[in-house]
Model the fold of this input.
Amino acid sequence: MSFSSLGLSAPLLKAVEEQGYTTPSPIQAKAIPAVIEGQDVMAAAQTGTGKTAGFTLPILERLLAGDRVKPNQVRALILTPTRELAAQVHKNVEQYSQNTRLTSTVVFGGVKINPQMMRLRQGVDVLVSTPGRLLDLYNQNAVRFSQLEVLVLDEADRMLDMGFIRDIRKILSFLPAKRQNLLFSATFSDEIRQLAKGLVNNPVEISVNPANQTATTVEQCIYPADQKKKAPMLLKLIQDNDWQQVLVFSKTKHGANRLSRFLDEKGVTSAAIHGNKSQGARTKALENFKTGEVRVLVATDIAARGIDIAQLPQVVNFDLPHVSEDYVHRIGRTGRAGATGKAISLVCVDEAHDLFSIERLIKQVLPRMELEGFPVVNKLPESRLDTRPIKPKKPKKPKKTFQHNDGQRSGENARGHKPVSKNRRHAGNAKPATASTDGAAKPQANARPKPAANRKPAGASPQRNPKNNGSNFKAN
Ligand code: AMP
Done:
């Protein structure tokens, strides 16, 4: 199958070609014609499937046909949970629309609102936004929706996890009732289905997993450690193995800062990203990490979500996450697209409980390693695999959303805690080292959530080579 058979016009086909894409991914093959036809779409697709082009290209196609946008109006609105994802999606919108007259912009918190208001004055065909900043802009009369034709909720499950449900409902109440709705989510929990009920009409349902997951292997192990020795242990691991690009997860923002400073002092270039950092600082850190200027990126879970980093060889859990599913998301950032990745966790005695929960979730005891020169004083108890099935937790109301100011938007509140809706999915037979691809199949209305291992973390993609020849994706 080729892109030209999907109903896209010449300027969009040219942009696709310029990106180096030759074959549509499964989700693109299904979503593009459906969206061009004007149908609502509900898609179970994670980052890495090509979903962004899957909704952006046909939206642009539709917008090419309609009236020009009026001042302060928006014709297509794409909502994303994080600033990073908003920026990435917008980058794609810019790339795909470069040969057209269509305009676009991105708005999110953490940066000045005035330039965004100025930009919106002329109106934009496509607006990519995080929910909080959009509400702020709407409340200040900077944006109007009477010309709105299409709404996209991207990574809807993350939006709910991050407590954005009220913001989303509020935004929906401002939009014209007659519009096209596209809902993208990695999983379809009860909460998402509830949201979808009031959102999409008679949708085309699409479900895909990222290609190449079957070939993906992640070598996992833990290093039992004394808490105070973790930083020098990490340094030794980086130096001994000559790791050039490491994503390190830290539980807290302060911990991330401290560790980053320590590594820098020892001559290993490092940067920290978390919700207390300005948007500029986060973007710069990420860029420097991508280009290799910075060897180690220390991130909190929320800050790392939605980050588009090409396949990472090495992920380190400096602290284990309290939520076991986050472990699966974290290690899913390595070993993509058939390559082997390594995920190492430094685990102290206080984290024994978190470790056992993770091992229960992934149904395997993680191999333990020792690092020369770091004998462990506070011994970590032996693991004994708990094979009892994990019961799904009862759904609970999402926590109150955060204030709509600029500072703390992006999923972490002022104290650095992330709001997690309590009905986080539990993986059944999660097996993070390998996960299967099922091509395209319909999500069933009352299907159980997919195992966490089959979900890819937001922002993770198999390969981010713009001159990709399409081999990331199974031809449909
Ligand atoms: P996404 O799932 O939208 O985050 O896309 C994942 C990555 O795949 C991005 O880096 C895209 O540039 C790339 N991509 C999207 N569509 C295609 C395609 N048809 N062929 C090759 N690469 C693609």
